[in-house]
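Could you help me review a protein record that somebody else here produced? This is what I was given.
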Amino acid sequence: MKNHMFSCEFFKLGPFTVCINFENDELRKEVTSLFKENWPVISVYQITPNVVDCYCHVFISERYYKDYIEKTPKDNTSYCYAADNRLLTYSSDFKLIRYFINTTSNYIAYILDFIGKLFIFSPFLLRHNSLMLHAAGVVYKNKGFIFAGPAGIGKTTICKILCRGGAYPLSDDRVIVRNEGGKFTVYPLWIFSSDGMDLSYEFMKLQFHSFPLKAIFFLQQSKKFALKEMNFLDKISMISKNSLLFSENIRDSREDFFLSVHSISKNKHIYKLCYDRSDKIFPLLDSYDE
């Protein structure tokens, strides 16, 4: 492993900065070219390693692939995903994530698959000041809005109404909220699947960007449209109930989880929204034009 030199590139994929190490420089140029051709909205960064969130190692040689994995230090390392040509490892404190890929084609698909797995890897999100919510999300006038609630409450319906009125969908079921230096931003889930939603190129561009979070609404079906204030404890309770945690190791991340919930709950724009399935929502969102 020490005798093999990687050719690396830095990518900004969703909320994560990924250092992708390629087996050789020819492979790096080929994959980077594919990214720019098929996913021009993905940013290629020239950055320092200390801001990297995770690492991805791409091999075309099975020998190099097995040799590198064999010689990678195993101390405090766990394995959460393994396949014939892929391996995802993480450190016990969830600060170091590595993904090993051995393939001769479909490079982008495998790399995006890696990011998709990180999005549901709760301890990793928590360690990066992020939390996944069971909610719909839209971008309206370059601002992010979240509509949370249980299945059947109307998240997809309100998402469709807003998109017919000029908003863009982030997701109709899961969104990520991240604390970035005291400012909250919202990211879409990497994979979007909703019948009837328009997955246009404009939508795909949103998948690689964050938007300032302006408000979170907890939906309640009602015959009358109304907005209700929430106290701080109610905010904590509702955000906790609507957080999605996918890991057997979440017990090791309880402190990170409660810190994330607490910080989000301090947002003053969190309400209960009594929702009558009408378009009265637009004047409400327009009120955040300040």
Observations:
- The chain has nine helices and 15 strands.
- Residues 7-119 form one domain.
- Residues 112 and 256 are 26 Å apart (CA to CA).
